[in-house]
Amino acid sequence: MPEGQNPFGLLERVAQRDEEEREHVSCPRPVLHFTSGTGWINDPNGLICENGRWQLYFQHNPFNTEWENLCWGSAVSEDLVHWRQRDVALWPDETGTMFSGCGIVNERGLLGLPKDALLYFYTAAGDCNDWSKGKMFTQHLAYSLDGGETLVKWGQVIAPLGKDSRDPKVFWHEETQSYVMVLWLVGNRFLVLRSGDLEHWKQTQDIELPDAWECPDLFELEDDGGEKHWVFWCADGYYYIGDFDGYEFSVRQGKRELRHEAPLRGPDLVGNRKTGHQPGLAAHGQRGKALHRMMAIPRELSLVRRGGELAMKLSLPEEIAGRFCPVPEQALVPQSAADEAAINLPADVKRLTYRGEKETPAIFKFSWPGESLDPVSLEMEGISLKAEPENGRIYLGDTVYEAGEKIFDLCVIRDAGVIEITANDDIIYLTVEISGYDLGSPVEITAGAEVSLSAGRYVPCGGHEGKAS
Q1: Which of 53, 84, 88, 122 counts the most CB atoms within 10 A of its CB?
Q2: Sequence-distant (≥ 6) Cβ neighbours of residue 314 within 8 angstroms
Q3: Are 55 and 174 contained in the same domain?
Q4: Is residue 433 a contact partner of residue 292, using CB atoms and an 8 Å limit?
Q5: What integer pLDDT is reported at residue 304 of this predicted model?
Q6: Contact 436, 381 (CB under 8 A)
Q7: What is d(CA 64, CA 343) in angstroms, rounded to the nearest whole number?
């Protein structure tokens, strides 16, 4: 806790365990999904890629496995897989607890800081701790002069706009030569503000978007035909495609849902790449252990046209996709002598067993190249998955996901305690918590005629030939 800050409000909500329970800290963890050393995490914040280093900050309660005492946790990676967790970057103070925000590079040398300084906008959530009682939510700025290792609080940049206004996202709009901030106000309402110096902001729009709620983001993406579009995105996975002139966003295509009931939270994009990388949050965890919840696998965003409309595509970045190599033949074997060993299915239903390896994630890709859309199923420790492509349904245990369209391809990534599912060229996306953490346990696969399957195994370091296709 920084000197001079009152710790008592934090201490009242600290969870303490006896020495003999320390084994909870070393509980099973996923390989591809970031987890904190201990405590609670939620929204990803302040994502920046600078000098080959990926900076990840996140809502964090280091003292308990419940939502409370929110700080900014901090981690850094050079490959989007291996993360080094750092000390807490922002602690609660008399202005409030540290709610979500964003990060940018000070490319224009503003605020009297060098151009390589990293700038962070965040919400100080007043009245959310004992020493900010009666205060409103306000938007603040912090900076780092050591590559994101430590953050220094600058101060308030926007006065209260509403009791709970929060989650600032800031970016540079080249066409109008101004910084832009989008901010959640209340309900389905969001604000657009502009600034030339990052200190003084002027509101230019108050927009209401159906069903949208908190953690907004506004960014430009190209579609598969090279045309550019603006996307307004919010925490619950709804997104709206339209136009943005630097002052106001106008919806051109109505609300789309990125996924259905997948617990992805707090979208925040790394803005200094042509396509955004978004390590969203898979709201999963190990109740009763010393940590709760994990980050989803980073995804590369783009737009594709489907049936006359635009849809968001969430692809694996090459940094991760390139780490999966095809499994050896002995790892994917038929369950009966009547089945062929080939991966392409024969006329009859084929049952295969994938022999997993300890602490090694796997990827399974199914496609239906012919006219027949026969179902497939995967039985693994912790969950049963079945896809019925003809009617667009995915069954996850007792839960049914309605895709709203036929399914023509399916990808399943298995990690400890979680699976991620994409379909139809990655425009359908699901994350699902599972109770199975043993990646060495088998996966039983059943598939019908004309279904093609490929499987890949995660390789921690380079050196393998090719990747799972």
Answers
A1: 122
A2: 258, 278, 299, 300, 301, 422, 426, 427, 429
A3: yes
A4: no
A5: 95
A6: yes
A7: 46
% of residues, the chain, pLDDT over 90: 57
The string of pLDDT tens digits covering residues 238-261 is 999 999 999 999 999 989 987 543
43 in active site: yes
Residue 122, CB half-sphere, CA atoms under 13 Å: how many? 36
> How does the average pLDDT of the chain come out, rounded?
84
Domain harbouring 210, CATH code: 2.115.10.20
What pTM does this model have?
Answer: 0.88
Catalytic residue among 43, 167, 217, 236: 43
Residue 232 · residue 217 · CB < 8 Å:
yes
**pLDDT 10s digits, 256-303:** 987 543 333 344 555 433 334 454 444 445 555 677 788 889 888 899
Q: Which domain holds residue 370?
A: 322-458
Distance, C-alpha 50 to centroid of its chain: 19
Same-domain check for residues 314 and 346: no
What does the pLDDT read at residue 237?
83
Say whether both 118 and 157 belong to one domain: yes
| Cα–Cα distance measured from residue 44 to residue 103, given in angstroms and rounded to the nearest whole number | 11
Question: For the chain, what's the residue count?
Answer: 469
Give Cα 452 distance to the centre of its chain. 29
Q: What percent of the chain has pLDDT over 70?
A: 82
Give the number of other Cβ atoms within 10 Å of residue 4's Cβ: 7
Within this chain, do residues 195 and 312 fall inside the same structural domain, yes or no? yes
Which of residues 273, 301, 318 is at a domain's end?
A: 318
Looking at the DSSP bridge assignments, the partners of residue 352 are 334, 445
Per-residue H/E/C for 145-167: CCCCCCCEEEEEEECCCCCCCEE
CA dihedral 14, 431, 459, 332 (to 10 degrees): 130
